[in-house]
Design a protein that fits this description.
The chain has 265 residues and is of the alpha/beta class. The protein has 8 helices and 15 strands. The chain is globular, with a radius of gyration of 18 Å. The termini are far apart. The model has no long low-confidence stretch (mean pLDDT 94). The structure holds flavin-adenine dinucleotide and FE2/S2 (inorganic) cluster. Flavin-adenine dinucleotide binds next to strand 4, strand 5 and helix 1.
């Protein structure tokens, strides 16, 4: 057993920076870690703070984090540049059950910043590392200027049935509009034996999107969600992330809906 202090973060060098939207940016750091899509790291800066951030993509020696500048840590991280150090500990939490998705019809519904944790999962399918029978993607953003990962969408469209939607019509937008739930309604599921559904996004979106799949009679066991919950230790010790008997940091953030249904507000 390692006697390394589990709260001690490691410095990692920033090797890439991409502005995604006005307040969201993607940092690439040099780090070698075995990561399952859906897992997160505790990201920190000394004397500023620490916050859980999902892995938005990874390779053998790099990890990407897509961060929305909303508070003390994330605003400070926004000021970093390639060559600077970021501090990380992890990966933590359950990822998506990749093996259960193999050779299944995979449906992923993601909204806003919820697209970040599913991006490594989508990439595995697109790169052929996770073979599936089909991939349906419904990706929703508030408006045109909040669309994340624009560069990836073309590659995703080639390998999936992609619906990219913004909430309301906008000048210059010729694509789909309406909430992701409206697009779920249009899906005609006749057989659930090989179907797996992933829903990730803001709490209200997850509530209504999962309800829509249940109305379509998709069994709970075939629906997976990911929670964002206030966290502190990330290690199942402090209880900050606890909902009823569930420690979201270790039992989640990815949970099967048969477990998560009672936890969604
Ligand atoms: C599993 C998991 C994965 C996540 N993945 C990501 C991710 O990939 N990318 C990402 O950007 N975020 C992610 N988050 C969310 C991120 O951890 C939080 O936004 C975190 O709080 C940011 O830390 P901060 O110090 O920058 O913000 P904080 O200073 O903690 O502020 C966060 C929010 O709280 C509000 N706030 C701050 N102080 C106060 C106060 N005194 N009173 C009232 N409101 C206040 C702020 O306005 C802001 O909206 C994830 C969270 C979880 C649990
Ligand atoms: S964050 Fe401390 S127990 Fe989950």
């Amino acid at each position: 057993m390692s006697d390394r202090n589990p709260y001690l973060p490691s410095p990692v060098k920033i090797i890439g920076l991409r502005q995604e939207t006005d307040c969201e940016f993607t940092l690439t750091v040099a780090a070698e870690r075995a990561i399952t899509p859906g897992q997160f790291f505790q990201v920190s800066l000394p004397r500023i703070g620490e916050a859980p951030i999902s892995v938005s993509n990874c390779g053998p020696d790099w990890i990407e984090f897509t961060i929305r500048a909303v508070g003390r840590l994330t605003n400070a991280v926004q000021g970093l540049r390639p060559g600077d150090n970021l501090f990380i500990r992890g990966p933590y939490g359950t990822g998506f059950p990749i093996d259960r998705f193999r050779q299944q019809r995979l449906v992923i519904v993601a909204g806003g910043s919820g697209v970040a944790p599913v991006r490594p999962l989508i990439d595995r399918v697109v790169r052929g590392e996770l073979p599936v029978k089909s991939l349906d993607l419904i990706v929703g953003f508030k408006n045109r200027s909040s669309i994340l990962f624009s560069d990836d969408l073309a590659a995703w469209k080639e390998k999936s049935r992609l619906v990219l939607t913004i909430d309301k019509p906008e000048e210059g937008w010729n694509g789909e509009t309406g909430l992701v739930t409206e697009h779920i309604k249009k899906m005609q599921f006749t057989d659930f034996d090989d179907l797996q559904v992933v829903v990730v996004g803001p709490p209200v979106m997850m509530k209504f999107a999962t309800a829509e799949f249940r109305l379509l009679k998709v069994p709970s066991e075939r629906i997976w969600v990911s929670f964002e919950r206030l966290m502190s230790c990330g290690l199942g010790k402090c209880g900050h992330c606890k909902i009823d008997y569930t420690y979201v940091c270790v039992d989640g953030p990815v949970l099967n809906y048969s477990h998560a249904a009672g936890l969604i507000d």
